[in-house]
Amino acid sequence: MEDRRAHQRLDVAEAQIGNVTTTIEKHLSEHSKFEKALADNVKMTTEIAKNTAELVELFKVLLAIAKGANWIRSFIIWVTPVVVAYGGFLIWLKGM
Question: What is the pLDDT of residue 33?
Fold first, then answer.
């Protein structure tokens, strides 16, 4: 009788250990999926940061070009009347 109970307890313990092992394997599998997803996320985030840095550099260049274009515009606005007046003066001198 005592052996039978001992065997029953062993069977129950082995079943519980089997359940624990199955649960641990399931969790390890899910954990590896999460690790892979995290690694993929880190890779994508790194690429996005790199692309963002490239865009920032591009915008800096475009801003510099825009400032240069603004300077050229200001120069043309101030120089054009002087050139036109000088040209008119030369034409007036030739006409005399």
Answer: 92
